[in-house]
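Troubleshooting: if your tokenizer reports a length mismatch, compare your output against this known-good record of 76 residues.
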Amino acid sequence: MKMKSFEDSIETLEKLIEELERGDLPLEEALKKFEEGVKLIKYCNQKLDEAEQKIEIILKDEKELKTVPFEEAKNT
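Known-good structure output:
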């Protein structure tokens, strides 16, 4: 599954949840949608973690108000 933007992923996840909550899907299809939902949750959590780390870097260096990629800041 190709990952979309964070916002698109959240929207897709909400639709999957609605479909699963209706309870009218065959078992195999429900399992596929559940698996897709788990992947989307992991992706969204990763994006949120990255955003949080970037905010922490910005706040840590607030005098200069610059951002650096997380990987670069981790090595300093």
